[in-house]
């Protein structure tokens, strides 16, 4: 319930005021069944605008620290991230990546929408960086379609390094679903997984108009 209250009552009106958002290609998102929404990542508010403009409920995975902090602040964080549709994963240790992928598979097995940023973190320079292969591994294992999504204008609303929002124009561009089931029998082949990932990043580059960089984005300091 809180997910929809946040979306339409508490946060949605503020987002509409600052970003005047629009969505193009929403018909490419299946109305039901498992689907992976894979987006470029420019700034913190990408997730907020993506949730606002997509009709279906989107589930993201978030680091477990958001759910385990003690005290009043910790309880408030836990409540907010749970209400916002995020599920915790433990990112410590060697099994962190596998834990995240298992959580994603569970989301898809339940017929839900998994939202993910293939770059792994926000772009430090506005360019599109090399994609990590986790999305392709999950898509190959589950058969879920991958829908590329490009965010435009969010850096104007929430400039890098600034905590103050500005007025701008945000557009969410949704591309045609990518079907990787043709590679299902080769899902354990790392070259196939890499090729599927690169196909997704090419689709994102085309949708977003960003310059592509064949290097991983560096994680921003916490």
From TrEMBL:
Highest taxon in the source lineage: Bacteria
CDD domains the UniProt entry points to: LPLAT_AGPAT-like (cd07989)
Keyword terms of this UniProt record: Acyltransferase, Transferase
Keyword presence, Transferase: yes
Gene Ontology molecular function: acyltransferase activity
Pfam families: Acyltransferase (PF01553)
Residues covered by the Phospholipid/glycerol acyltransferase domain: 35-154
Protein name per Swiss-Prot or TrEMBL: Lysophospholipid acyltransferase family protein
Lineage: Bacteria, Bacillati, Actinomycetota, Actinomycetes, Mycobacteriales
